[in-house]
Amino acid sequence: MTETAKLVLPSDAQLETEANATDAAARQAAVIRPEMARLLELTQANGSSTTAKEINAQLDRVLRDYEELTALYADNNRRIDGELNDIRQTSGSLSGRVHQLGADLQQQGSSLVARATAVEQRIEMLRGQAQAAIADAEQRWEGRLASSNSRIAAELAQLDAGIASLEALFRSQEQIVGEQRARLDQFDIACQLLDSATRGNKSRIEAVREQTERQHAIVAARIDGLGALQREHYAEFQELQRLVGVLHSETRRLDEEIGKLATALATHRDETGESFKWTHLAIAAVFLLTVLGFALVKWLPAFAPAGTESALAESQSRISAVDAQVAALASRLSAQQEIDAQQQASIDRVDGKLGSLEKSLADLRGAIRKLRPQGAGAAVLHDSQWLLQQNPKAYTVQLVTSPSQGDMARFIDRNITHLALDSLAYSVSERAQGERYNLFFGVFPTLAQARAAIAALPAELQVNQPWVRPLRSVQESLR
């Protein structure tokens, strides 16, 4: 075979390379016969000595080469047809896969549309529920706040009126106490004058003493009346404290309901956020599948459904609307909290007025304690605050427990010669039978010193069987 018949066609060449090789082989096969004719003419023109036998042999070789080329051409055509069939089958399978991917994408798009529709319905349902809950809560809160504000305003007006009347009563009582103190001073001066001027006139002194005792009884009766009035005021004060406690409990309940509503709103927001997270994940998966489709088939255009993007944009806008409603509800909650703060400030003002009322009552009690005609020692007694300031590790002696302050004052008057006035203290304890007045004597650093002080007391004080008490227990009972 000549060098012109050596055609090399690789089996893994692509379609364009095989087509070019086929055209080249066809052209080479077509120019064999004219070349032989020119060779024969050239031989004849040059007068070569080539014989006819050699020419025939050369022609036979040319014919064999031609037949071999023809067979090779046919083989190449068969191979090309096989490759073309393989390519057609491959393109058919690729087209099937592409159509299948398109169907999958359409199915996923329809599922996304259905899911977006379901999410939209759920959002509408939640919006309706939230609006109904908000309207219901607004109605309930408005009614409760209106009733609470009216009740608080009425109670504040009553408190103001009561405080004003109590202040007027306190002023009148202070005037009465001052007048009685002035009269007692006048009685003391009159007694001194009568004692110095008429020592021999015992009958007149006895008459003045009886008159003084009658005045003392009148003053004691007035003091008892003032004590009863104080107890009535204290009962009213306890009622006011109970009302304030009711207001505090109602405020705490309102705060708890507001907290529950805020928790429900936060839960609703979390649930809505979770559903949209799953929607975003589904969108990301669809986008990933689209990118893979582009990578597999470069010549196919993107055919992602445009309805999905519009549905997502609509869902996002509705999410923004729900967030705006939640923000409005949060602003309403903050306004409600401001109203609650104002109510708390009103309650604090009421507490301040009650504190001033308690202070006025304490001042009145102090003034009454000082009103003792023959009990000068009662005015210098230490109160419970002095007991609270002492060392809790020390000890004291409790002399007596009296049912009233008058009994305690009379006990001090009877034993004033045996007691140091600056070492006496008293406290008031509340019991089921009423108030009890406890009289204490001295502060001793050790238990032995306190017992020695009891042993040194006169027989008149030993009758009541005084006992030692730690100051810690006394202070705990006062607190």
UniProtKB/TrEMBL annotation:
Q: Would the keyword Plastid turn up in this protein's UniProt record? A: no
| Biological process annotations from GO | cell division
A GO molecular function annotation here is: peptidoglycan binding
Q: Which residues form the SPOR domain?
A: 389-470
**Is Plastid found in the keyword set?**
no
UniProtKB keywords: Cell cycle, Cell division
- What's a Pfam family in this record? SPOR
**What is the protein name for this chain?**
Cell division protein DamX
Source organism of the structure? Candidatus Accumulibacter adjunctus
